[in-house]
Each structure stands twice: as structure tokens, then as C-alpha cells.
Amino acid sequence: MDHATLFMMGIYLGPLAFVSFVSAWADGRKPIIGVILAAASTGLIAFVAYDRPEGLYALSDIPEMTTALIARMLAAF
């Protein structure tokens, strides 16, 4: 996969981790899935920051990258 796709996966796993943390906290459970999602999100973003020669993407790039990712997914079908 290219760096843009991995970065977007990391960006969109972050809010899912937060929701999982809040859900586990509200139910009185251990946030195991939230920890896994947060670790995956952090790992993906850190990998892109380390491996990409230009460095990490800017936050202003996220909307354009999101539309490009959706367009690539629609073109695949």
C-alpha cells in the first residue's frame, strides 16, 4: 500500500479507538479493543512518518486525501 492509504487508515482508526474506549468505560469493561485500535493507529502514522522521505502529511492534506481514497475505492468496483 502507498503511504497515503496507510496514513488515512491510521487517521480513521483513531476516532474508532476513542469510541471503543468510551464504550468500554461506560460499560465498566477493560478497553482491550480500544488499546488495539489506538496502537494500530499510532503504529500506522508512525510508520508513515518514518518511512516517507518527505515526512508526515499535514492536517490540511486530510480532506483531499480522503476524497482521493474514496475515488480509488469506487474506481476499483
List the helices and strands and how they pair.
Elements lengths: L2 H25 L4 H20 L10 H15 L1
If you had to describe this structure to a student in words, what would you say it looks like?
- The chain is an all-alpha fold and 77 residues long.
- The protein has one domain.
- 78% of the residues lie in helices and 0% in strands.
- It has three helices and no strands.
- Helix 1 runs antiparallel to helix 2.
- It is globular and about 40 Å long.
- The mean pLDDT is 93.
Quick structural overview:
By secondary structure, the chain is mainly alpha-helical.
Distance between the termini: 18 Å
The largest sheet is:
none
**Low-pLDDT segments, ≥5 res:** none
Give the topology string: H per helix, E per strand: HHH
Strand content: under 5%
Q: What's the number of extended β-strand segments?
A: 0
- Count of discrete domains: 1
Structural shape = globular
Helix content range: over 70%
Structural class: mainly alpha
Rounded mean pLDDT score: 93
Q: How many separate helices?
A: 3
